[in-house]
């Protein structure tokens, strides 16, 4: 079994997000929508049916999202920005790489959209820095699609996407400084201004080593935190590692785990 977390550059037209999500069918586990980031995160999982569901979602997104009209605080390369595959259960990273590569070839062939791959070869931040500068697409045209831009297709372990909103009065400069202090092999972090409030937006790429509690405390030791936001789903092990009394503060709950959604 694999998880696939499709990030699309649409967070303000809910009817568009819902139509794209509906294409996933029974593989859809969760939809997280953010109007300020102008982004939606669709979590899918499945066995043999997953890749067809991902292709259906991406086809609908490319047909309905025009990057030329997009404004939002989150970095993006495409209407379908990132499509990472992650192993679940008995799957391994090689299974995710194989699914990623099949997907990349399909996007290039059938949608005529350039694709950059990330995973064992290079990180997503490296792709964002180098795409169309000194890094050519791994598949598809050599220049961005006029409406859809490019797709970043990935293979990685399961991670946790996590935002911490700083207390009113904190500045974007403080958020950027905190993000820089947190950034490392286990944490990717950006300091952003979102709806007039400073935010530290993170990917916890090894949440078993550095999880929500650790980053919350690290940020709170530097600047006051207003509230936490889990983006999408977390592995049950990440929630179980946190004392129950503290889960609400960290925006964690057993109902918002990959395992609980698969059990439905």
| CATH topology type of the largest domain | Formiminotransferase-cyclodeaminase, Chain B, domain 1
Shape: globular
Q: What integer is the average pLDDT?
A: 95
- How far apart the termini lie comes to 16 Å
State the domain count. 2
Give the fraction of residues assigned to helices.
Answer: 25-40%
Order of helices and strands: EHEEHEHEHEEHEEHEHH
Record field, number of beta strands: 10
CATH superfamily of the largest domain: Formiminotransferase, N-terminal subdomain
Spatial strand order of the main sheet: 2-3-1-4-6-5
Overview of this protein structure:
With 264 residues, the chain is α+β, with helices and mostly antiparallel strands. It has two domains: 2-155, Formiminotransferase-cyclodeaminase, Chain B, domain 1 (2-Layer Sandwich), CATH 3.30.990.10; 160-262, Alpha-Beta Plaits. The protein is 30% helix and 26% strand. It has helices at 14-22, 50-64, 93-111, 124-130, 172-182, 212-220, 236-240, 258-262; strands at 2-8, 28-34, 39-46, 80-87, 115-118, 151-155, 160-166, 187-194, 197-204, 225-231. The chain has a six-stranded mixed beta sheet. A hairpin with a 4-residue loop joins strand 2 (28-34) and strand 3 (39-46). It is globular.
Summarize the structure.
With 264 residues, this protein is of the alpha+beta class.
Q: What topology does this entry show?
A:
Blueprint: E1 2-8, H1 14-22, E2 28-34, E3 39-46, H2 50-64, E4 80-87, H3 93-111, E5 115-118, H4 124-130, E6 151-155, E7 160-166, H5 172-182, E8 187-194, E9 197-204, H6 212-220, E10 225-231, H7 236-240, H8 258-262
């Amino acid at each position: 079994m694999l998880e696939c977390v499709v990030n699309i550059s649409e967070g303000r037209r809910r009817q568009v997000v819902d139509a794209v999500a509906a294409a996933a069918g029974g593989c859809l586990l969760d939809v997280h929508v953010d109007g300020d980031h102008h982004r939606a995160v669709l979590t899918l999982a499945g066995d043999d049916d997953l890749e067809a569901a991902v292709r259906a979602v991406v086809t609908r997104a490319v047909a309905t999202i025009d990057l030329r009209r997009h404004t939002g605080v989150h970095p993006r390369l495409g209407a379908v920005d990132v499509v990472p595959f992650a192993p679940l259960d008995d799957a391994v990273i090689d299974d995710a790489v194989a699914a990623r590569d099949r997907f990349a070839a399909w996007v290039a062939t059938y949608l005529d959209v350039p694709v950059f791959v990330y995973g064992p070869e290079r990180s997503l931040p490296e792709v964002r820095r180098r795409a169309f500068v000194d890094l050519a697409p791994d598949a598809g045209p050599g220049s961005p699609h006029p409406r859809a831009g490019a797709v970043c297709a990935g293979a990685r372990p399961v991670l946790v996407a996590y935002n911490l909103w700083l207390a009113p009065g904190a500045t974007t400069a403080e958020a950027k400084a905190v993000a820089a202090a947190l950034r490392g092999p286990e944490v990717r972090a950006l300091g952003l201004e979102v709806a007039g409030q400073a935010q530290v937006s993170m990917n916890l790429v090894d949440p078993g080593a550095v999880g929500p509690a650790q980053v919350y405390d690290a940020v709170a030791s530097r600047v006051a935190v207003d509230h936490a936001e889990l983006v999408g789903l977390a592995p049950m092990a990440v929630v179980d590692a946190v004392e129950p009394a503290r889960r609400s503060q960290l925006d964690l709950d057993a109902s918002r785990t990959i395992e609980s959604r698969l059990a439905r």
